[in-house]
Specification:
With 295 residues, the chain is α+β, with helices and mostly antiparallel strands. Helix content is 45%, strand content 18%. The strands form two sheets. It has a five-stranded antiparallel β-sheet. The protein has a four-stranded antiparallel β-sheet with strand order 2-7-4-5, with no helix packed on it.
Length: 295
């Protein structure tokens, strides 16, 4: 039985213990509402089953996303995907909005599965000065959500969910414009890829074999790797390994957990083998990676 990683806190919003009831169909607040009381420092954490959208209208932020840091200046937009470790160091008096939406509600607000929907599985960071469209449209969506959120008029929930769908679509369309090498795939293959990624997310700590994933999807390992290469340029096995490496990076970067504990948590019986596995994929040992990140 593998161990969990409680050192990385999981919150409903920020500070509310994971497992607490979500307060509404979605949650909207200004960046200063919560950041000011925390001295503009939101420590690394993650959310389960929640998508979070930020609009940076004024100021700047150093945003950490998993093991990477990004310096972002207004106007900018960020989407944090479920389970991704993220944190923020806002410039004092930064202005903007934060909208947090349960994934089940967001899925109700979006059209059926398309190639665009797969982008919701990964963080999106948009420096709006670089976009081909004006950020004013996004600013108005956030402002409309904020206004509707504070009201208690008839149809409030329905209106908020419609606006949430528009918000997600704005992010998805803008992100797709930045993916110059993206390719359109048929609907059955997109569904298979999304199912595979969901299975990996659910089971990667147990390190099931590639054949077991393929069996669960009702396809061969060859076909699974073929569609993964078409969609991501990576084999299915590489995607599985990348997910394990990503989680290792998260724990190394944001917790003091011992290497042996991390190895056990990720399904490795031998810490030495875990260290070799990590070094092979990252190019440095877990200890060296942690030291470089902290320094």
């Amino acid at each position: 039985m593998t161990m969990s990683s409680p050192e990385i806190p999981s919150y409903v919003l920020y500070g509310e213990t994971y497992g607490s009831p979500f307060p509404d169909c979605l949650h909207c607040e200004t960046i200063s509402d919560r950041s000011r009381v925390h001295d503009w420092h939101i420590r690394p954490h993650r959310h389960y089953g929640l998508h979070q959208f930020l609009w940076i209208a004024k100021g700047s932020v150093v945003a950490s996303a998993d093991s990477f840091q990004h310096v972002i200046t207004a106007p900018a937009a960020i989407m944090n995907a479920p389970t991704a470790v993220h944190g923020f160091e806002f410039e004092p008096d930064t202005e903007g909005y934060v909208v947090t939406i349960p994934t089940v509600n967001l899925e109700r607000s979006l059209p059926g599965p398309t190639a665009l929907l797969s982008r919701l599985d990964h963080a999106i960071i948009l420096q709006c000065d670089d976009l081909e469209v004006s950020p004013s449209g996004l600013s108005s969506i956030f402002a409309s959500i904020a206004e509707e959120y504070l009201n208690r008029e008839e149809g409030r929930v329905e209106a908020l969910l419609c606006q949430a769908g528009l918000l997600a679509l704005w992010f998805l369309r803008s992100a797709s414009r930045q993916e110059v090498n993206s390719r359109s795939e048929g609907q059955p293959q997109i569904a298979l890829v999304r199912s595979f990624l969901a299975l990996v997310e659910e089971n990667f700590r147990g390190q099931p074999s590639l054949s077991s994933y393929a069996h669960a999807l009702g396809i061969t390992t060859t076909h699974l790797s073929r569609i993964c290469r078409r969609q991501f340029g990576l084999s299915a096995q590489a995607i599985i390994h990348d997910r394990v490496v990503l989680e290792a990076k998260r724990i190394l970067a944001y917790t003091p957990a011992a290497i042996a504990h991390i190895a056990q948590d990720l399904g490795f019986r031998d810490p030495a083998y875990f260290s070799r596995f990590f070094a092979h994929h990252v190019g440095e040992t877990p200890t060296a990676f942690r030291k470089a990140f902290i320094d």
